[in-house]
């Protein structure tokens, strides 16, 4: 890797926080082959690249469904063949690539990013570790931390968050509660065990999506409400940003900046939720999606 390539990668690392999605082989005479770069540097990607393909298609291979960009097979950052477990997910990913115009905007391709993470598993975590990481969010769950003042915000939190906490307690037959203490609520061990057992019913791919949604919403409770189709993406995002929305209503918003953040969070939460459903082995979920 020459100096110019290294500077480019460093710039990408500083500019982006999301994992890369570019996976195709570089072409001779058209810049560096990104697959030759160290994987640690491939965790970041320039936000845009000129579109280098005309047609996008899917095909079924031995390991699942593959994405084709003209004659190229899509690959992951670790140079693995990009193969997904369901045709529906393959179509959704292919749509992301096909919807790119003259410029490929990688930061808009959330499903591709999630598939890369599931295939490469860059953190090398197993199913048990993924589940425990998700359940650990209960300790700092957004909807469990309350304020005592200002009184208007405290009342808003009670009005908006109490119903979703009550739903989760009834849905999973657990005790969650809330707290104004900086230490947060005291989550019973039985509650953690129940969520661990529930999450264990999902496969590894779906768990990657669940954790992604949780990190976006900063809440296991909101994420499960969204994935269980109890609340919409818009509602889940609103509840996750409740304090920020309160401050905006009081002090006003920064023109375009708040709207961009809101739209981006909705896109990520929606993509993660769709990913979970498309990766789920449950025929019930697939049937519900077709009905709706």
From the structure above, extract its key features.
292 residues; alpha+beta; ATP12-like; ATP12-like fold; 4-stranded antiparallel beta sheet; two-stranded antiparallel ribbon; 13 helices; 6 strands; 8% strand; globular; disordered C terminus
Structure write-up:
Interacts with ATP5F1B; involved in the assembly of the F1 component of the mitochondrial ATP synthase (ATPase). Interacts with FMC1. The protein is an alpha+beta fold. The chain has helices spanning 3-15, 39-42, 87-98, 110-120, 127-135, 151-172, 189-199, 204-217, 220-227, 233-240, 242-251, 257-279, 283-291; strands spanning 48-50, 56-61, 64-69, 72-73, 83-84, 103-105. The longest helix is centred in the last third of the chain and has 23 residues, at 257-279.
- Shape, per Cα inertia axes: globular
The CATH architecture designation of the largest domain is Orthogonal Bundle
User: Could you list the spans in which at least 5 consecutive residues all have pLDDT below 50?
Assistant: 1-44, 282-292
Q: Based on helices, strands and strand pairing, what is the structural class?
A: alpha+beta
Mean pLDDT: 83
Topology order in helix (H) and strand (E) letters? HHEEEEEHEHHHHHHHHHH
**Total domains:** 2
What is the end-to-end distance?
Answer: 50 Å
Number of helices, counting only DSSP H or I runs of 4 residues or more: 13
Biggest sheet character = 4 strands, antiparallel
| Helix content range | 40-55%
Function: Plays a role in the assembly of the F1 component of the mitochondrial ATP synthase (ATPase).
Main location: mitochondrion
Membrane topology: Peripheral membrane protein
Pfam families: ATP12 (PF07542)
């Amino acid at each position: 890797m020459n100096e110019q390539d290294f500077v480019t990668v460093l710039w990408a690392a500083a500019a982006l926080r999301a994992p890369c999605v570019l996976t195709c082989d570089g072409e001779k005479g058209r810049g560096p082959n990104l697959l030759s770069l160290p994987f640690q540097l491939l965790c970041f990607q320039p936000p845009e690249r000129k579109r280098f393909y005309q047609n996008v298609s899917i095909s079924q291979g031995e390991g699942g469904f593959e994405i084709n960009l003209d004659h190229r097979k899509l690959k992951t950052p670790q140079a693995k063949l990009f193969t997904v477990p369901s045709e529906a997910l393959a179509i959704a990913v292919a749509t992301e690539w096909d919807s790119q115009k003259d410029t490929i905007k990688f930061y808009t391709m959330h499903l591709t990013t999630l598939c890369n993470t599931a295939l490469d598993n860059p953190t090398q975590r197993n199913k048990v570790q993924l589940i425990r990481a998700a359940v650990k969010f209960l300790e700092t769950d957004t909807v469990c931390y309350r304020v005592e003042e200002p009184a208007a915000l405290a009342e808003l939190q009670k009005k908006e968050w109490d119903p979703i906490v009550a739903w989760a307690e009834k849905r999973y037959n657990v005790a969650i509660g809330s707290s104004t203490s900086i230490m947060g609520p005291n989550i019973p061990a039985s509650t953690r065990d129940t969520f661990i057992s529930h999450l264990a019913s999902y496969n590894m791919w779906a768990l990657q999506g669940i954790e992604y949604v949780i990190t976006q919403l900063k809440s296991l409770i909101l994420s499960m409400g969204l994935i269980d189709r109890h609340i919409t993406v818009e509602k889940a995002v609103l509840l996750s940003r409740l304090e920020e929305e309160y401050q905006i209503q009081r002090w006003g918003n920064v023109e375009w900046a708040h709207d961009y953040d809101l739209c981006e969070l909705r896109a990520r939460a929606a993509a993660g939720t769709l990913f979970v459903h498309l990766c789920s082995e449950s025929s019930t979920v697939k049937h519900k999606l077709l009905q709706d």
